[in-house]
Each structure stands twice: as C-alpha cells, then as structure tokens.
Amino acid sequence: MNPKLTMNGREASFTQGQTILDVARVHGVRIPTLCHLEEARPTGLCRICVVEVEGEDQLLPACATPAGEGMNVHTASERVMVSRRTNLELLMATGYHSCPACEAAGDCRLQDLAYEFQLEEIHYPRVKGDFPTQDQKPLIYRDFSKCVLCGRCMAACDEIQVNLSIPYSFGRREDHGGPAGWYPLADPDLCVLCGECVQACPVGALLERKARGRGRTWEMTRVLATCPFGSVGCRVRLNLKDGRLVKVDGDKEAAPNRGRLCVMGRFLYDFVESEDRLTTPLIREDGELREASWEEALDLVAGKLREIIDRDGPDAIGGIAPAGSSNEDAFQMQKLFRAVIGTNNIDAARRSHAPAVEALAEVFGAGASTNALADVEQAAMILVVGSGAREAHPVAASFIKQAARSGAGLIVAEPAAGTLTEFAGLHLPVKEGDEAAFLNVLMRIVIDEGLYDQAYVQSKTTGFEVLKKSLEAYAPDRVARRFGVEAAVLEKAARQLAAAKPAVVVYGAGKCEPEKIRQAALAAANLQLLLGNVGVAGGGLTLLGGPCNAQGACDMGALPGFLPGGRKVGDAEARGIFEKAWQCILPQGPGLDTTGMAEALAEGRLKALYVSGENLAARANPNAARMAACLQAGGFVIAQDVLDNETTKLAHVVLPVTAWCEEEGTVTSAERRVSLSPKALQAPGQARPAWWIYKEIASRLGKTWPEASARQVWEEGVARLVPALAGVGYGRLAGDGLQWPVPDASHPGTARLHENGVFSKGKAAFTPAG
Ligand code: SF4
Ligand code: SF4
Ligand code: FES
C-alpha cells in the first residue's frame, strides 16, 4: 500500500522518492515554481514553491522536500503566501526587469508570478549595475540585468546536456563588486552552443540573438517538425509568425530528444531564408549557368536522359539520392531510376550510413539499429565506437553521458579525448578506420577466455566457427601495439563488456571510407551476438551516422543493391511485386554506388549523373577535389538542391527544390522512427517539391505517375509496397512518429528488433570483418 500524507486537509497517496511538489501535481494541487527544472536535481534556490509542513519551524521548498508518511502539508496558508510574495520581491530586486521592452514578455515566469501575486511595489533595494555580459555572437544573447540567479541554466547545461560549461565558481558576483552570489557565465571553451540554457531560462536573461525583436510569444504559432540535420530525429518546435520561421526550440514531451537540441537544430534553421537559395531552374550555356523555365529545364533533362538510354543504355545513367530530404523524395527518385530509366545505379548516404545498413542486413536480416536510443538508459554498459557519435550527434551523446553518470559503465573507442571520454571508465584511442580491428580483438579475447554467451551463440546464430577462425589474426599483443596501448587494457575492456549485461554498442561512423564503415558495423554486430546482447532491452547496436534521413533513404531503396524495404535487387519475387505495381521490368544486377558512379563518370562509362541534395564536391568532404574532377570530366550533370553549392556550380542543369517544411514529408531516424514534418513555409521563387520534379521527368520519358502530393507518394506507394511500413499513415504521425516495423494500422511500432534473439531470417549470421 502506498504511503499517504495530508495536503490542504485531503489525504494524498504517493510513492517513495516523490517530492511534495510531485505529490501536489499528481493530485491536482498547484504550487508555483520558478527554479525547478524537470529532469534536473532540485536546487531549492528560488523558494517560490515553499509550503508549510506542520511540526517544521521553517517553510520548506516543495520541489526539494521528499514527501513523508503522515505529513500534514499546507500549500497556500497565509504564512506560505506571505513568504512567496517576499521571495518574489527579492527576485524582482535582483536586476532591471523592464517588461514592456523585454524580449521574454509573455514567456516569462517572473512576469507570470508578478501578475499572479499582483506585485505592484517592491520593498527591497534593487541590485545596481555592473552586470557581467558574455557575447556569443550570433547565437546567444545574455542580459544578466534580468538574471534572477535561479540556476536553471546551469542545471540544464550540467545535468541535461551534461556539457558542464557553467561552473558555479565561474563569474561569481563578488568578482564584479556585488554581494555574494554568482552569475551563470558559460566557459566559452566548454560551451557547445546547444542553447539548452536559453530554453531553460525562465526570464529574459538568456535569449537567442537572431530571434530578438522578431516576434512576441503570443504572436507566434507553433508546430512540431523533425530536425533537418542529424540522424537522431530530434523533434523541434517551429515558432512561426507571418509565415516566417522566427525560432526553433525543443518540446520536452517529444521523443526521442525530450526537448534537447544541438547547435544546428536549434540555431541553423535560417538556411531556409539564405541568400544562397536556388529559386529558379538554371541551364548551362556557353559555359555559364543562366536562368530557365521549368519547361525548358525539364525538357532538356528528359531529352538528355532519353538520348543516353537509347544510345548507351540505362546503366550509363546514375543517380545520387538525398539522405537529408524526405522518404518520399528518396522513394520517387529510386523509382524514377529503376522503373523509368531502368538502372539500379542509385545510391544515398554512402559516406555515413548506407554501408552500415547493408552490413546489419547481412548479419541480422534487417538493416537498421536494433534498439531505440532511449535504451542506453537501461544499459549496464555502453561501448561507443567511432567519433561520429559524439561529434555529429551531441543530443545522443547527452543521453550517454547521463547514463554514465547514473552508473552505467562507459567504454569509448575514439581517436582523441573529448566530452564523452571524461565520463568513460576506459578510453581507447582507436583511430578512424581501425574500429573493426578493435572490435575483432575484443571478440578474440572474449572467445579465448570463454566469456561469450555460449547458449545464445548456439541457439540464435550461425557461423561461429568461421568467425572464430577469422579472429586468429587479431592477437591482443599485436593489435595493442598498433593502437599504442597495453594488451592488458584491451583485455580489461573485453572483460568489462562481457561481465556487464545488458551492454549496448553505439557506432558513429565519422568520416570513414564506406568499406571501413561496413567492416566496423559487421564487427559490432558480431560482438553483440557473441555477448548475447541482441534483442534485449538496454542492449543491441545503435547506429549514428549521416543526415536526417540517412536511414530512410536506405529503407526507400536508394541503394544500388536493395529495393524499398530492404529486399535485394536480385530477389525475383521481390522484383515481381514492384514490377506489378509500377508496370515495368526492373533491372536485376546491383548498380554502382556513389564512388563507383563518380569514377564511371570520370572514365566516360557513365554519361549522366543526377545528384539530388548531396554536395559531392563540398570543400569539407575529404575527397572533394576528386569528386569535383569527376563532375567536370564531361558527363551530363544534373544537380537538384535547396542551396547553391560547389556541386550545383559544376552542373549542366540545376533544379531548385523545396526545403524542409516547405512541403510536408516524412523522415526516418537512426532508431527507425518515422516522423512527419508539415508544410509550414512557402518556398521561394520557383522552387518545387521533389515528387513533382520526378513526376514531370517520368512523364517526359513516357510514364504517367498518379501521385499528386507527398502524402499520396507515401500512402499509395511506400505504405503499400513496404510491409514494415504498411501501418504507417500520415494520420498516425502527428506526435512522436512510429518505429518500424509497423505491419498494420493498429500496430504500435517496434522499439526493439529481434526481441529475445528471434531473427526474421531464422538465425543471425556471424559475418567475419577485417
Ligand atoms: S549553450 Fe549549451 S553548452 Fe553552452 S552554456 Fe548553454 S547549455 Fe551549456
Ligand atoms: S541566466 Fe536565466 S536561467 Fe540562468 S540563473 Fe539567470 S535567470 Fe536563471
Ligand atoms: S521552484 Fe522550488 S525552490 Fe525554486
């Protein structure tokens, strides 16, 4: 039976560990708060939430006081209300709270409380001037004249994002000549500009600089969308005014990120209004790109493709599909290539996610992360392999750091010490590209010492002996020398991993070569099978890599060897399903991947390359110069994109496409979560949705497609042809989305694949990696 207390004369039950505030909320009693921050430990700083507990001399902060059996609590007695009012006045006296001009007016807890308490006079002297400032242009604006020293920013930074950028001792007020206290100045060397502190600040002391003056909170409409950058699939809230995107913030209720965002998701949304937006089709003439009509550009593209198909065959054309756009975009592009042009030369996410997807399909029978990101919270041990997990996915890293703080073991194998390694029990400096060797040596030790899960291996897998043989080349002494560590460190890592159950492996590919990514993913999958960690809560393998729809592009068949839904192009039965739906004969052999297509273009074997949403020649890419040379080698290059970039500059035809939230569409995150972003903005100029562009080209090549919206592409194409997505309709995606497989309209989605070691292909297949 649950313990009970009395609150305002009524009995209220509670569970051990709940605070008085928790109990009040559960029982519908309102206690005002200010410094309290969900997910962070209470600090009890502001004392707005004080309550009277009979028998206690002092009023107690409800947010920081555990509920106790038999307590008699008064949440709104006269003594309580007087104290709250006094505390509120003291907070108001901390600085200059000039509401009419303050950016936060309408979205300020202090203002709300002042209204609630009808606070017209403050009986305490205001703290005077010399407020510290910190300039983090152009992103964060700090105005400490409005800071009420509530500590929420510090808690958000320290406990939610776990960046530890706002130390208590940093920027103490006494250093600025004032009374004892502190100002929450971030250490610029540690701050990653995630903006969690801005989101947590209850007043106008921390603001997004770009959004200042662009709209009050009550003037904005808010809609949920999915971040267009990383593969975690963070849900974001768009704040819109007069058809423009004013700012983006997180939604605490939304999975998988629970309100957390990184610098890109929170602040780089304004690319939609960039001066580099492509707003009209362009055609190269006399060496220069000139503006053209859609009719002219599409006629030219279709005419060129027809000419090449007739003269050189369909395999002389290649397509690179976007991994940062929608599922509908990737699906229609691969359909254009397979069903209309007649080639499997279609690829996406090759330098991030696709090779790992292909590897997991080989081992497990499903090419995707096995577990949800939230599973790290249930893991006894987390092994992070590759630098991509930390660098490119700070939100995922924040959950890992929190889990490590809560007691999970953490082993990090990445080249340099970084934010994650500070929380790790072991850091192994494994260089990019050496991940497979590292995982192989761990397996060798686990097998040699008999630490593997023999029952699991025997009943759930095939190929153990072949794997064991392949590991003979990975003697710990030799591999340890290569990594510059003692063999004993590798042994320690292997023993710790084997001893902790469940253990999850998080693999972040970084900027590796595709084949290295494939090998690392194979090895990670083998390791988890060996330890019996696949199909269990807190276990499995989580891939983190690539742009927002890297997984979705693979699911949609934007791969040279796989049809939508992950069946191989050589599978006649699978081909038959698509041939019937699309009224065509599909090509049988695997096509070229991205690198293969670029090289074939350079050698003249490929006569045309259609690059959609992928800046192949981006200066930041490790092989940018080679890619630029391939694109300039003489083949016909079509570039379809949102922004002008190094690749569009080299193209013969440039097609401007709508950006994120200018057309509705779905993406699929690294944890297989399909979510919907709405059409919330108008596209500039003549930018058009991708589905429309492919439909127009198909029509000029003699195929009439009926779909007249992204929704129709999904519901009449994807959902009908991909069994794992059959139960996903747009109508079910209003909230957090659904994790596939979702076989029918009543299925709730699947957080964990291969539950209890049951694999769709019967047994999982160890596949040696090297
Ligand atoms: S922006 Fe992020 S890292 Fe920087 S101080 Fe704020 S919460 Fe900490
Ligand atoms: S900056 Fe904001 S969140 Fe941080 S202590 Fe001041 S008022 Fe609180
Ligand atoms: S909300 Fe409880 S002390 Fe501030």
Account of the 3D structure:
The chain has 770 residues and is α/β, with parallel strands linked by helices. A hairpin with a 2-residue loop joins strand 12 and strand 13 (288-291). Helix 12 (435-448) packs across helix 16 (487-499) and helix 12 (435-448) runs parallel beside helix 17. The model is unreliable at 176-180 (pLDDT under 50). Bound molecules: iron/sulfur cluster (2 copies) and FE2/S2 (inorganic) cluster. The site of one iron/sulfur cluster has 13 residues, from helix 4.
Quick recap:
With 770 residues, this protein is of the alpha/beta class.
User: What Rg, in angstroms, do the CA atoms define?
Assistant: 28 Å
Number of helices: 23
Q: Helix amount, in percent?
A: 25-40%
Structural class: alpha/beta
Distance between the termini: 57 Å
Instruction: Detail the poorly predicted runs.
Output: 176-180
**Structural shape:** globular
For the biggest sheet, the summary is:
7 strands, mixed
- Share of β-strand residues: 5-15%
Query: Which cofactors or ions or other ligands sit in this model?
Result: iron/sulfur cluster, FE2/S2 (inorganic) cluster
As an assembly, this protein is single chain
Topology, number of strands: 28
Mean pLDDT across all amino acids = 93
- Strand line-up across the major sheet: 13-12-24-23-22-14-15
Q: What tags apply to this protein structure?
A:
770 residues, alpha/beta, seven-stranded mixed beta sheet, five-stranded mixed beta sheet, 15% strand, binds iron/sulfur cluster, binds FE2/S2 (inorganic) cluster
